[in-house]
Amino acid sequence: MTFLVFLLACGAAASTGLFFKPGHWYESLTKPSFTPPKWMFPIAWSLIYLLVAWAGHRLSLIPGTQVVLAFWAAQIALNTLWTPVFFGAHQILAAMVILALLWLVVAAMVVMALRFDVISGLMLFPYLLWLCVAAALNFSMLCKNR
Asked: Exposed/middle/buried for 132, CB within 10 Å: 0-12, 13-18, 19+?
């Protein structure tokens, strides 16, 4: 049952993409050469959200994980915020700030998760790697589209 709660939270974050689509504004931005193809984003995020939900579920079953679960809640809130700020409000700098905070929260969450459950920590690691790509993309677009 707790897996479903974590999965629903991830689904809520993912649903922002239904309301704030890239559209013409995003297409008109100058993007870096390392921008992944469009089809990769939904696949990557679907896998990441499944892993994040599963890791949250596993951690919720372990006594003493309240702090790491608070970080889990913080990361899903920041994750949910990024899409409307970037794609909806077209605020590349503000989105970069959110992404930097998100990266820090997820990095701390990975470290804490590893201390409680190595499998959960490893399941969160692809998220951190993808956020590195996202941050590089966001930063590059910030620099190229002033």
From this structure: exposed
Backbone angles phi, psi at 93, to 5 degrees: -65, -50
pTM of the model: 0.95
pLDDT in tens, the chain (146 residues): 899 999 999 999 999 999 999 999 999 999 999 999 999 999 999 999 999 999 999 999 999 999 999 999 999 999 999 999 999 999 999 999 999 999 999 999 999 999 999 999 999 999 999 999 999 999 999 999 98
